[in-house]
UniProtKB/TrEMBL annotation:
Function statement: Major role in the synthesis of nucleoside triphosphates other than ATP. The ATP gamma phosphate is transferred to the NDP beta phosphate via a ping-pong mechanism, using a phosphorylated active-site intermediate.
Enzyme class: transferase
Subunit structure: Homotetramer.
Family to which the UniProt record says this protein belongs: Belongs to the NDK family.
Gene Ontology terms for molecular function: ATP binding; metal ion binding; nucleoside diphosphate kinase activity
InterPro entries: NDK-like_dom (IPR034907), NDK-like_dom_sf (IPR036850), Nucleoside_diP_kinase (IPR001564), Nucleoside_diP_kinase_AS (IPR023005)
Active-site residues, as the UniProt record annotates them: H117 (pros-phosphohistidine intermediate)
Lineage: Bacteria, Pseudomonadati, Pseudomonadota, Gammaproteobacteria, Orbales
EC number: 2.7.4.6
Keywords: ATP-binding, Cytoplasm, Kinase, Magnesium, Metal-binding, Nucleotide metabolism, Nucleotide-binding, Phosphoprotein, Transferase
Residue ranges the record marks as coiled coil: none
This protein's name: Nucleoside diphosphate kinase
């Protein structure tokens, strides 16, 4: 199976709850390596740009406000089939459908405040990693 990189975000709700370490432990247990990491507070422009594909959705403005409401942790994960396996670890967007043991089932507050982000395809991963990191910040 291919080794893939994916973008992971620990969202403002989870950073406020001080569960960065707990989420990273789950990532390590899932055999995904953290190969780049930074804590940032998004500007409105950065949050809008990151979620540009959702700009016409009714939840867009609230999503942008939430994503800039506090610091986030952005990280690049690497592992076998990494994009899909991290999505499985996160669980679905709708936490009522998330299986116990997934990050969202265990840590999300709501459909919006759902603790974590993960790229949904290899193409998204490439775009999203480049949104936050230059090559010299990624340690393979
Ligand atoms: N979101 C929301 N309301 C919705 C759907 C999504 O606030 O009805 C937020 C939620 O934080 C989600 C993000 O928008 O994680 C991006 O939505 P997407 O459908 O891409 O879900 P994801 O890929 O994060 O599971």
């Amino acid at each position: 199976m291919a080794i893939e990189q994916t973008l992971s975000i620990i969202k403002p709700d989870a950073v406020k709850k001080q569960i960065i370490g707990e989420i990273q432990t789950r990532i390590h247990q899932a055999k995904l390596d953290i190969i780049a990491i930074k804590m940032v507070k998004l500007t409105k422009e950065q949050a809008e740009g990151f979620y540009a594909e959702h700009q016409d959705k009714p939840f867009f403005a609230n999503l942008v406000n939430f994503m800039m409401s506090g610091p986030i942790v952005v990280q690049v994960l690497q592992g076998e089939n990494g994009v899909e396996r991290y999505r499985q670890l996160m669980g679905p967007t709708d936490l009522s459908k998330a299986a116990a043991g997934t990050l969202r089932a265990d840590f999300a507050n709501s459909m919006r405040e759902n603790a974590v982000h993960g790229s949904d395809s290899l193409a998204s991963a490439e775009r999203e990693i480049a949104y936050f990191f230059v090559d010299s910040e990624i340690f393979q």
